[in-house]
Design a protein that fits this description.
With 571 residues, the chain is an alpha/beta fold. It has 3 domains: 235 residues, P-loop containing nucleotide triphosphate hydrolases (Rossmann fold, 3-Layer(aba) Sandwich), CATH 3.40.50.300; 141 residues, Rossmann fold (3-Layer(aba) Sandwich), CATH 3.40.50; 76 residues, Orthogonal Bundle (Arc Repressor Mutant, subunit A). It is built from 22 helices and 16 strands. Strand 3, helix 7 and strand 4 form a beta-alpha-beta unit. The radius of gyration is 24 Å and the shape is globular. It starts with 25 loop residues before the first helix and ends with a helix. The structure holds zinc ion. Zinc ion (ZN) binds next to helix 20 and helix 21.
Length: 571
């Protein structure tokens, strides 16, 4: 099956999103925008891509003329030490400086952070950056402080006293950039402080977490659109390393973005060798892994082995821990143990981390020489995000899937447990209704009594919260605010989940098709992400390309399997 035929160009339609869905060609919508006079505030008029600073746009901005590219470059040089913008950086910067929204799809390591850090220094006011991971924001904060930028971060790793200090700094008008997790907005005292500030830019990093079609969906992300409103609706910039058309339009909708300037660039990673090895059983997979570990220990490179389940991770860890320097990482380990293993890995003490997908979002290790998928993940974007952690230093690295067709079942199992259906939503709402008004109840309690998995219960409660029916407290406690919870119409939201389930199945099929395909793997991925590719282009650095070179006569699945095996000895 040809993976490219399944490009998910589906833009969601239906009652839940109708008017706010962007057209498939975001650029077109961008140019057709409403004139600036119909909007409030000192927002700029439409840009022209060719000539941003002339004509009506410039006069509309006469009062608040945004900094020019020259001025921005000067700051880029002075504060960040870069001579010029990389491809795709300036366009979104120009958009937010001019008061518009911007959506940036750029792989990690291609200079994504500059895109919001630079406007933060140029715009008068505070730039608020929502980031899903504390390790990520700490890392960014350290780097910014080193560049002399007044960067604040508030998160759960701070002591109460430290958090109070940051809160006071916010009140006093300190800070050019403030990093926080989405959960932090629930802290009312802190939010009041924030309301006292002029927020110049609202940034959502790892924005696919906003999207109900994103693989890292986090319920706390879905209220960010209304938070931006409360903060005076500054320009919104959403950044992600991975977003299909469906995810992009969902990010726009969830955040209430106004025809954002969309930039998609930089998905090709020439230094990554992508390969899929067909394996018929775990014995063969284990031998392949042993070979990879041996080679890695000889050459001194380190990498990650992704598994789908904790159980499989434990099995592999037991199997290899005497023979190789391997670590184990998954979400069920105690926090201290996770940190210790991660630090050992980061400092070069391990050849391989055997891990579930809990490992990685905040990993800033640039010299990974391999990423192996012992099981393939549920979508091509998850795959490329995980595989893309290899070779960030630009040197050669190998990304291998140990493919076995039966592994699709593991992913299908996960799909079944992801989203609540109508029955589960009703069960949970009825259980909560039995609980007295004004009293808090823990989510674990509710989930257990309703016999709904906790993860799904959390989604239903978040939907109810969005409708103003419940209030959430820290520590997983919830309070019912009204009677007759089931009277509210959640059908649109739940229909979304139906659609989401369907799309998840399509994504999984695309992932399987990728594994079985004989077409250039990089090409398939670029097409999947809507990056433009020339007709006759292929990467020359994947097992499928080997197949074409090695045996033109037999580009069949069997031929590719053979070429893949040969490729290992060639490369
Ligand atoms: Zn290729």
């Amino acid at each position: 099956m040809d993976g490219a035929r399944r490009r998910p160009l589906v833009v969601r339609e239906g009652p839940a999103c109708g008017a706010l869905v962007s057209s498939p060609g975001t650029e077109t919508a961008f140019f057709r925008r409403m004139p600036s006079s119909s909007r409030s505030g000192p927002r700029a008029g439409s840009h022209s891509a060719a000539d941003p600073d002339t004509s009506a746009a410039a006069s509309a901005r006469a009062v608040h003329r945004p900094p020019s590219r020259t001025a921005a470059r000067a700051i880029l040089r002075e504060r960040f030490g870069h001579d010029d913008f990389r491809r795709g950086q300036w366009e979104p910067i120009r958009a937010v400086l001019g008061g518009d929204d911007a959506l940036v799809v750029m792989p990690t390591g291609s200079g994504k952070s500059i895109v919001y850090q630079l406007p933060a220094l140029l715009l008068p006011g505070l730039t608020v950056v929502v980031s899903p991971l504390i390790s990520l924001m700490k890392d960014q904060q350290d780097k910014l402080i080193a560049h002399g930028v007044d960067a604040l971060a508030i998160h759960s790793h701070l002591t109460d006293a430290q958090a109070r200090t940051v809160g006071e700094q916010v009140t006093e008008g300190a800070g050019e950039i403030l990093y926080l997790t989405p959960e932090r907005f629930k802290d009312r005292e802190f939010f009041e402080r924030l309301l006292g500030r002029k927020v110049a830019l609202f940034v959502v990093d790892e924005a696919h977490c906003v999207s109900q079609w994103g693989h890292d969906f986090r319920p706390d992300y879905i209220v960010l659109g209304s938070i931006a409103q409360r903060l005076g609706r500054p320009p919104i910039m959403a950044l992600t390393a991975t977003a299909t058309a469906a995810v992009r339009s969902d990010i726009e909708r969830q955040l209430g973005m106004r025809t954002p300037k969309t930039t998609i660039t930089g998905f090709a990673r020439p230094n990554l060798r992508l390969e899929v090895r067909r394996t018929v059983n775990d014995g063969i997979k284990d031998s392949a892994l042993e070979e990879i570990f041996t080679r890695a220990e000889e050459s001194g490179g380190a990498g990650v082995v992704y598994v789908a389940t904790v159980k499989e991770g434990e099995r592999l860890y037991e199997r290899f821990k005497e023979q190789f320097r391997v670590g184990l990482y998954h979400g069920k380990l105690a926090a201290a143990e996770r940190t210790a293993t991660q630090e050992r890995f980061m400092s070069g003490g391990l050849t391989a981390m055997i891990a579930t997908n809990a490992f990685g979002l905040g990993i800033d290790k640039h010299d990974l020489r391999f990423v192996v998928h012992y099981h393939f993940p549920g979508s091509l974007e998850s795959y490329y995000q995980e595989a893309g952690r290899a070779g960030r230093d630009g040197k050669a690295a190998r990304c291998t899937i140990l493919y076995r067709v039966e592994d699709a079942r593991v992913q299908q199992y996960f799909l079944g447990g992801k989203y609540p259906d109508v029955h589960e939503a009703v069960k949970l709402a009825l259980t909560l209704e039995q609980h007295p008004l004004g009293e808090r109840v823990s989510i674990d309690d509710l989930a257990e009594r309703a016999e709904v998995p906790r993860r799904k219960a959390r989604i239903v409660l978040t939907l109810l919260k969005r409708h103003g029916l419940v209030r959430e407290y820290r520590g997983g406690e919830w309070e019912r605010l009204r009677d007759r919870l089931t009277a509210v119409d959640l059908s649109a939201d739940l229909t979304d989940y139906e659609e989401r389930r369907r799309l998840d199945r399509v994504k999984l099929e695309t992932m399987v098709a990728y594994c079985q395909s004989t077409k250039c793997r990089t090409r398939t991925i670029l097409e999947y992400f809507d990056e433009e590719v020339e007709d006759d282009w292929s990467c020359g650095n994947c097992d499928a390309c080997d197949g074409i070179v090695v045996g033109r006569r037999r580009v069949t699945p069997a031929g590719v399997a053979l070429a893949g095996a040969m490729g290992n000895s060639i490369a």
